[in-house]
Structures are given as C-alpha cells and as structure tokens.
Task: inverse folding
C-alpha cells in the first residue's frame, strides 16, 4: 500500500466531500471533494505540462494564500517533493535553495516573483506564479491517480540554517510526516471534522506542517484575509468558525493576550506554541485570558514539531505543586519517541544534569540533502543530535538551557549568528564580528552585532540588506577594540552576552 501523505486528502475527498477544506476569512473557497480534485489535476499538470518525474523537487515560495494548500497537496499527489521556502528570505537566499535542491519548478506568490526572477538560477526550468494564467493552465489536465510512494520517499525538504553558515535541507519523508500527524492527533490537539485551523503563522513552517493532521481529519484550513497576524481578525474568525486552533510563536500569543479586542466567546480549541521561550508571566496571562487551551511543543526542522509536548491539562493545572517548573519546561517526550540528555561522549546523564538533547524515533529526518558529512555528524549512533542543551527532571520534563547553542530566536524565526557574521565580514574595514541575541519584550530576542573595525551602522545595514533577509539584520551595532576570547582564540559569546545583558 502506498505511504503517500496525500492519502489523507483522498480519503477526506471521498468521505467528506462537502465539508469545507479551504477558506479565506469567513468564505469557503473549496470543499474537500474540490480540493482533492484540484490536487489531482495539479499533479497531472506538473507531470504532463512541466515534465516532472516522481521525486523531483518543487519549491513553493509565497506568503500565506489560499492556493498554498492545493499546491502542497498537488506536489505530494504526483509523488514529487515539496520545498516550502520562507517568504521573508532575500533573493540571494532563494537562489541558494533553488540551486541546492535542484528544483525543476518553483510555484511563487506574486509578491515574490520579481525577487526570485532576478536571482533565478539556470537550473530552474519553470517559474509559475500562483493564481495567474500559467498556473490555471496546469489544472486543464485530467486528474492524475495518486502516486505510489514508499514511507522513506522524500515529501518535504525543509531548509534550516545552521551554525556552519549555509542552510541545510532536512529530508522529511512521507513516513516522518505521517508519524508527526498521528502524534499531533493523539497528544497535541485532537481534531474533529467540524474543527478548523487558522494559518496565521507561515505555511512554509510549523503552520504548514499542522495542515496535514487537519486535512487527515477533514477539518478546514482558514487563511486570514489580511495575509498576516492580526489578533482582532483571528478573534473574529474564531468566533465565526468555532473549534479553531492555531500554531503561534510565543510573541504572537503575547500579542493576542494583550490585544484590546475582546476574545471570541466560543474560545479556542487549541493555541499551540513553540519556537522560542514562553515566559511564565506570559503563560499565566494567556491562560487567564483564553482558558485551558494552551499547548507547548518543542521540535526542530529535523524532527518536525515533535520532540516534547506540554499538554493543556499540565499547563492549566495550577494546583500542582510543581506547576511553575512544568510551565517553564517544554514538557515531556512524545510517547513514541526516545529523548536522552547526553554528555560529550553521548552517554546519558543523570536527571537534573545538563547536556545535549538527543532524539530517536519515527519523526526524525532521513538526513540532510546531499550533505553526507553533516548527516553522519547529526545522526551519529542513530540519534538526532539537536545541538540544543537541556536537562530532564525525574518526571521526564525537559528544560531548555540553550536553544541551538548560539541561535537567536526573534519573533519565532530562527536567526543563526554565523550567517550574519559572514555577511558583515565582507566589509573591507571590519576585522572581527560576533552576533548574539539580546532579550527583547516584543520579539523575545533581537540580533546584536559586536564589531571590531571602522564602519558605520548604515554601511553594515546596507551590506545585510543586499545579502540576507531584513529580519536577520542586527538591530544594534556595538563597536569594540577587541572581542573576548579563550586560550584557543575562540570568541566567548557567553561573556559577550553577560556584558550585553548586564
């Protein structure tokens, strides 16, 4: 039997054909029968009109829009691999993903067409704008049969930057994504056919991953008309639809909590948050405003949305004497996974001791795309080495000590200092630079650059804007005579953080 993740859509189209599948605001655009047919026709168009073969990569580069769901499922239906790209990236970064993935086609939102066209690599054969005539023509073909795929076949190539600079493509298989969807249904946010999810966070990341369990249950995917995150709009749609969940970065949850607009009387089915620290004060306030619907997850691109979960019962149970400690944690491992805190030799440490977080199980990626060295290092001994430091208490609750080592998480987006540092070092008068995260009440963290050399902030800003996404640009530059280093010459970011935060 095929392991194609699009089987969930086929089943929903066959058994819940009239249920709403995709909506824009309050308006239903597609039923499940229509969405399934659209995906089947798009699969045929990609195959017959663009000449794609099973396993070929298709980049989807767009802000959230109604075509995103059919685009993803059309790719899977045809047995192709989806490569969703962060819509906030710079054209140079899009070019790298297009080249590195070897994508034959790119489905692009109209707002990103010029940026991608300007940096389009020769290897990209087809650049099609979502919603235009060329895109519509792909649906002229007769619906394709659902492609047969194995559980280990590539479904989603998730490009995640690393501390070594260049992004790496985490190979997520149909089996990985099916396991994630089942774990979501069982442990995170059980979903019924009459429920819905609002995609206020990017469909290229966590919200798009959560599209899958909702399609499997024939629940509706609601796209905000604004195309962005507006608490008042989300409250209005939650009231209109009922049974609504959303995935949100902690900063988004904080904005919802502090919004002057009255929350929906029907409440939320689930507010699932992750991607950064949620301060206890903010979690308390959100719980007070929205009731027992909060769920925290910890995962990363290499084990999508699934390493640990702190469920709504735990978060809401203020009577537990360990409640605050549990609230400060990222929960317990998913029952289907193994999680270990390891020392430098990959030996398990005692409860309460810190070490690197290692994960093993069905959601862990197959490896990095065309990067055997990084794959061997990250999946050493059969365990995913997350690069994150943490500790497990005696009850199995995981506390993160240092997310991604030097990773900066700003507004739920991962920012890797090495990537910014390499850009700033292109300035002829900059000899050394170190980027750290500075706590910020609105964004969680903001990137700050400590610079040795003769340059001005506007010059460095311009350099960043030419090479990386705007949101990665340092928000402050501190010019120093020298950077703190250890005996081996390694820059001591811990010391810089103490100086910066002190």
Result:
């Amino acid at each position: 039997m095929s392991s194609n993740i699009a089987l969930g859509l086929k089943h929903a189209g066959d058994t819940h054909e009239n249920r709403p599948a995709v909506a824009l605001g309050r308006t239903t655009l597609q039923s499940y029968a229509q969405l399934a047919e659209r995906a089947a026709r798009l699969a045929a168009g990609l195959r017959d009109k663009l000449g794609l073969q099973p396993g070929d990569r298709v980049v989807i580069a767009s802000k959230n829009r109604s075509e995103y769901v059919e685009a993803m499922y059309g790719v899977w239906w045809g047995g192709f691999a989806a490569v969703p790209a962060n819509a906030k990236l710079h054209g140079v970064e899009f070019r790298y993903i297009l080249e590195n993935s070897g994508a034959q086609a790119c489905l692009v939102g109209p707002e990103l067409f010029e940026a991608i066209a300007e940096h389009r690599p020769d290897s990209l054969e087809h650049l099609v704008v979502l919603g235009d005539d060329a895109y519509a023509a792909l649906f002229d073909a007769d619906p394709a049969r659902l492609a047969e795929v194995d559980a280990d076949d590539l479904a989603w190539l998730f490009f995640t930057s690393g501390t070594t600079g260049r992004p790496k493509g985490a190979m997520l298989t149909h089996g990985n994504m099916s396991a994630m969807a089942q774990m979501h249904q069982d442990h995170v946010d059980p979903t019924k056919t009459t429920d819905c999810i609002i995609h206020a966070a990017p469909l290229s990341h966590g919200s798009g991953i959560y599209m899958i369990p909702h399609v499997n249950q024939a629940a509706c995917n609601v796209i905000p008309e604004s195309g962005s995150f507006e608490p008042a709009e989300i409250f209005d749609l939650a009231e209109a639809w009922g049974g609504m969940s959303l995935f949100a970065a902690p900063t988004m949850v904080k904005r919802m909590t502090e919004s002057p607009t009255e929350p929906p009387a029907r409440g939320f089915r689930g507010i699932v948050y992750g991607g950064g620290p949620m301060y206890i004060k903010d979690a308390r306030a959100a719980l007070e405003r929205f009731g027992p619907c909060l769920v925290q997850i910890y995962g990363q691109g290499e084990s999508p949305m699934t390493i640990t979960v702190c469920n709504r019962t735990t978060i809401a149970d203020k009577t537990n004497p360990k409640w605050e400690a549990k609230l400060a944690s990222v929960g317990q491992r998913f029952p289907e996974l193994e999680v270990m805190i390891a020392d430098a030799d990959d030996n398990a440490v005692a409860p309460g001791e810190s070490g690197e977080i290692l994960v093993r199980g069905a959601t862990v990626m197959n490896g990095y795309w065309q990067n055997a060295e990084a794959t061997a290092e990250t999946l050493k001994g059969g365990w995913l080495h997350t690069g994150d430091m943490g500790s497990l208490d005696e009850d199995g609750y995981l506390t993160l000590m240092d997310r991604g080592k030097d990773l900066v998480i700003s507004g739920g987006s991962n920012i890797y200092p090495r990537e910014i540092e390499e850009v700033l070092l292109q300035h002829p008068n900059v000899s050394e630079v170190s980027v750290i995260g500075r706590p910020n009440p609105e964004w969680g963290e903001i990137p700050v650059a400590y610079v040795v050399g003769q340059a001005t902030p506007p010059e460095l800003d311009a350099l960043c804007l030419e090479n990386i996404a705007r949101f990665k640009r340092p928000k402050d530059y501190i010019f120093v005579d020298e950077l703190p280093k250890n005996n081996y010459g390694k820059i001591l970011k811990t010391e810089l953080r103490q100086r910066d935060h002190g």
Q: What stands out?
A: The first helix runs from residue 7 to 15. The first strand starts at residue 20 and ends at 24.
